[in-house]
Amino acid sequence: MKKRDILLFGVAVAAASLSPARADTYPSKPVRLVVPYAPGGTTDLLARIIAQRLQVELKQPFVVDNRPGAGGSVGSAYASKQPADGYTLVMVVESSHAVNPNVYEKTMYDPVKDFAPISNIADVPNVLVVNPRFPAQDVKGLVAQLKANPKKFSFGSSGNGGLSHLNGEIFKHVTGTEMAHIPYKGLGPALTDLIGGQVDVVFDNIPSSAGMLQAGQTKALAVASKSRLKILPQVPTYAELGLPALNTPSWFGIGAPAGTPAPVLDVLNKAVRSALANPEVIAAIEKQGAIPSATSRAEFSTLIVKENARWKSVVTDIKFEKM
Predict the structure, then answer these.
(1) pTM of this prediction?
(2) Angle in degrees, 0-180, between the axes of helices 206-214 and 187-196, rounded to the nearest 10
(3) What is the spatial distance between Cα 113 and Cα 109, in angstroms, rounded to a whole number?
(4) What 8-state DSSP symbol labels residue 232?
């Protein structure tokens, strides 16, 4: 072997030994977890729960980096363009990786091609909530009120094209009712106005509504879940009410930029699955009203593909005009 070749070979070996992509040395420095939503929301809460435990599992800091905007699109697009070395991860959730790509004419990223799925983290039941003073005590009564007063009532959402907006449109479609849509900059302001009586209905998720429900500030009429929830045993599922199109919990997972080495993704998947088997993590997630749900990398990849196809069909069925 020539001297020059020997030198190049030595440099390559040294570089490989220092590479952060090697599974036997990963992670060797702090890992950043991009959350494409504002602090305090469901995605952020679940991200912080899993990040805290991953620090224990992998013995390196996991730092949450909130980058909200455009319903999760800004942070997701940012994460997709980061180095595929395992040191930038991103929350991959239904809103940003299945809904957005099907409601916007142009997207800043491809939810399948631009990301490497790691694992689902939790399934989160959605909930239909009203002000306790609303003149209906169940979904049947709500539908009756809406049909009798087609221009009187409104529903609030986290913003145009968001999951809470789409769930409201699906509800209107399958029940043959009308409500005005009032978009907000997040579900927090929408819920505040629900309590104040400025809007009548919000299609929320359990983690952000749980405290208000327990305090009696809002009232739940239906939940999207396989079975009734422990924290709301008196509230029927949409399936029980004959509305199966709405009975799909939201999913919240974690991924990395496309091209991240498979051995690193395997390390992360193993760590996430171990974290989600920890009793303290399970309790923390269930306290939010969510259901821990670890998957293999392949299972999570399949879920994302199937959910994109489902939302494409939903958007077509309800004749949603893309933005």
Answers:
(1) 0.86
(2) 30
(3) 8
(4) B
Q: 133 exposed, middle or buried (CB, 10 Å; 0-12, 13-18, 19+)?
A: exposed
pLDDT tens digit sequence for 225-253 = 989 988 899 999 999 999 999 999 999 99
Which residues contact residue 240 at a Cβ distance below 8 angstroms, ignoring those fewer than 6 apart? Answer: none
Q: Which residues of 105-116 are buried (b: 16+ CB within 10 A; e: fewer)?
A: eebbbebeebbb
Structure tokens at 63: 């730092």
The Cα 254–Cα 115 span in angstroms is 10
Please give the structure tokens belonging to residue 75. Answer: 């942070």
Which of 96, 135, 136, 88 is closest to 116 using CA atoms?
88
Residue 242 to residue 239: CA distance in whole angstroms? 5
The encoded tokens of residue 70 equal 């455009």
> Would the CA dihedral through 209, 215, 220, 226 be positive or negative?
positive
Write out pLDDT tens, residues 51-100.
Answer: 999 999 999 999 999 999 888 899 999 999 999 999 999 999 999 999 99
